[in-house]
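[job 4471] stage=fold_predict status=RUNNING
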Amino acid sequence: MKQIIECVPNFSEGKDMGIIRQITEVIEAVDGVKLLNVDPGAATNRTVVTFVGEPGPVKEAAFRAVKKASELIDMRRHKGEHPRFGATDVCPLVPVANISMDEVVEHARELGRRIGEELGITVYCYENAAFSPERRNLANCRSGEYEGLPRKLSDPQWKPDFGPSEFNALSGATAVGARDFLVAFNVNLNTTSTRRANAVAYDVRERGRPLREGHPVTGKIVKDENGKQVMVPGSLKAVKAIGWFIEEYGIAQISMNLTNVSITPVHVAFDEVCRKADARGLRVTGSELVGVIPLNAMLEAGRYFLRKQQRSVGVSDAELIKIAVRSMGLDELSDFNPREKIIEYMLEDASSARLVSMDLKAFADETASESPAPGGGSIAAYAGALGVSLGTMVANLSAHKRGWDERWEEFSDWAARGQALKDRLLYLVDEDTRAFNRIMDAFGLPKGSDEEKAARHAAIQEASRYAMEVPARVMELCLESFTLLHAMADTGNPNSASDAGVGALCARTGVEGAWLNVKINASGVEDKAFVEKLLARGQTVVDQARSAAAGVLALVEERIAGH
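[job 4471] inference complete, writing structure tokens
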């Protein structure tokens, strides 16, 4: 699965659209990067840019943008209301999908090192990428702002993490960090009162509200020995919130920044606002997502609301998203288009899922055509996907079977496992064709000079190994699906026992079909240790799959006979 990160650089220019456009153009010129948003502010004289992609392209785009900003923005002339200390003021990297924060920290530090060494710009690492606790807070790194940099750089305690300690008057300094994903999420209320919306916002936001003596609204604010307000924390961690009135819609909203959706997900924030609003005589009518959101956040929301209904969560991603949208009223104010709101979908290349996006007839026609791809490897992966889909269907039918209400969660868990296997196998339907095309591309490389011949040979070998690995992954996933199929044949809805049997036959076909592809592609791989290891494992998987299929079919025959 692709690793995806987000980058949100802030540039110290918010008025000259020509400069801003030149910076965003170098970002968009990097293959594999998707520019999501450009938000210039005249008063702050600052532009926030958001783009996403895999770590390599994102780091390259970020570096090019920092370089271009250093060429176009003169900090000696910069004025604006927002704190700043560099042409590229901050450049945080954010994990989105299939990547840990620790990995993002390493990417951020690599980016910071390159900016410092190649561009001669002072770099401080902040938030999770900080090398010391006092540098985690961006405000500490940026204290004194641009004007205070010469003094700051003369202090040994503020030696840059990367780049020169000498003051760069033109570009200033840049803070490079790694932080959690921030979701801007508004909840709609059936009131026009900003004061009442603020009351709910104070109830939920982490900072809470000031402690007062006597009356909670009009009482005197309590202060500590240092003269600071004593706060009563709200109920949600990692949440900033305020109430406001939106004239365009004629309603008040709770406007929230969820600064870490792994701590407080959108569905938890939504339900908590519902509870607090209800306690104050208000009703939540819907919500609004400002900007974009990671796919997993929407899937988890869908699962959350299904579990509340005691319904199986083992449904498709599309269904989970639909449940999340309806449950939170995300389409109350405007249509919610997943292709425009979910990061992973915005990054999808339609050609990368060409086969699985076809209808059944088109897929069969494409397979039957004179083109060598899709071939047996793709069909094996699809057979496996159909097999595990049948097992998942039995699990979902069992979860909703009348009289089995107390077992809904057991079968829901099975269905969720089946959905995950199905999605991975469907991905491999197209990946097998891509693996074949990689071999063809490698053979098409130039072979004139000795260097070109060596590069071509290395590319052919790498592609050939991958052409063995893809069907080997199909085999493993199909074998894994037998655990689900056996359970459904044994304990699932007895009316669907035959479906589990057909699923087992499909899964066995997936294993044996992929095995043929592993073996035929082995002839082109020179790494004999690699080949022997994969072939030995493949034979084991085939033997286990044959045995597992026989076991499932025996159970199915028993249940059919006793039906």
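[job 4471] summary: Residues 210 and 231 are 4 Å apart (CA to CA).
[job 4471] exit 0
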